[in-house]
Amino acid sequence: MEFAVRAGGIEESVLDRTWNASGFTCFPSSLGARPQTRRLGLAEPDGEHRLLPALVPPDEPPPVQPLRPLIGGDLLETENPFFFRTVLQDTASLIYLPVFQRGTLVYDAIDRKALGPSPNGLSAADRPDNVASWFGYHFTPALCPNCGHDVAGEKESLIVFCQNCVVGFSVSGGKLTEVPLAVGKGGSRTASFLPFWRVRVETEGLPLPRGTGKILPGGRREQMDRDHFHFWVPAFRINPRLFLRLAHRATMAQPAIEPTSLTSLSSVAPITIASVEAVKTVKILLALLSPKDTELLRGLQDRSVKVREHLVVLVPFEQSGYELTNRQIQAAVHVNALKYGRNL
Questions:
Q1: Nearest one of 338, 212, 201 to 275, comparing CA atoms
Q2: What is the pLDDT of residues 54-100, one digit of tens each?
Q3: Angle at the Cα of 100 from the Cα atoms of 136 and 46, rounded to 5 degrees
Q4: 224: which of 164, 213, 287, 288 fits an S-S bond (Cβ 3.0–4.6 Å)?
Q5: Phi and psi of 273, rounded to 5°?
């Protein structure tokens, strides 16, 4: 998902992009629609083919179009400029395009078309010694480190759960690491739970928005101080516009939480967005909460955001027909939006 703060508002879109990670300009800058139209197989070193190393990291994609943040001057001086843009990566995959060299040219091995002259250094480029560790399947024992019970989770979930201890674990460095969990207040026994990241950050030179917190009598909102203010970001994939709406509503409401007291985690939606990706939306939420604060918008590009703490909160939603609703954050989600969101 991509979000961009412009002078006219916030734009959102879904991206499925490829870019040249080899560092050689003779290869195409993008594979286009090939990853979607052709069947991909698991790459394995076979001793016959050379696998060029990836020199461009997956978290540094080239911009879709030139990024033109507005630093100074009147808003009307630049046509619909960017203040800030960020991309939430769901899955990053390394795809190898088969090529071969004939004479002084490099050819695409699929359609046999010449890609361009063979660059200097292509023949000398070699793979790292530990390339074998990049390929194949790596298994981690799915046993709870606390009680030895099986842990379970859907195949796309970044966090698995122990039904016995009622705790969550992420897979890091080949082992299970416990993830702090909390539950939003107000759920019934039949509630379904949607996971949110609750993030507390330090925003250098970026003021927190006013009028956030629980609703007081008369419709006013309780003022929140910086030490108790949290950004709430959905931890599951969904349509980008709805994703931003849920983040906005939850951040405005600042829902109350309590320690995990669930007896079952079977009704919890899979967690498919990592905390490091959720933090990227903080500046977008600042712009959404203070759309007329031009000083804040101008500072989004250069100001930094530091994470102080993050927590997974399982927010209860009650199902009514085809909708899941939560009165505390005043939000509703159609069940089909969750279903189709898994395919984004």
A1: 201
A2: 777 666 666 554 444 444 444 434 455 678 888 787 667 788 888 88
A3: 25
A4: 213
A5: -120, 125
pTM given for the model: 0.75
Sign for the pseudo-dihedral over CA of 192, 255, 158, 242: positive
Integer Cα distance of 266 and 262 in angstroms: 10
Which residue, 220, 208, 185, is CA-closest to 314?
185
Angle between helical axes of 282-289 and 240-253 (0-180°, round to 10)? 70
**Count H helices, E strands: the chain?**
6, 17
Residues near 103 by beta carbon (within 8 Å), at least 6 away in sequence: none
Q: What is the rounded radius of gyration, in angstroms, for the C-alpha atoms of the chain?
A: 23
Q: Cα separations (Å) of 229 from 88, 199, 314?
A: 23, 9, 18
Q: How many CA atoms lie within 13 A of 287 on its CB side?
A: 26
d(CA 68, CA 313): 36
Concatenate the DSSP letters of all residues of 172-218 into one string: ETTEEEEE-EEEETT--TT-EEEEEEEEEEEETT-PPPSS-SSBPTT
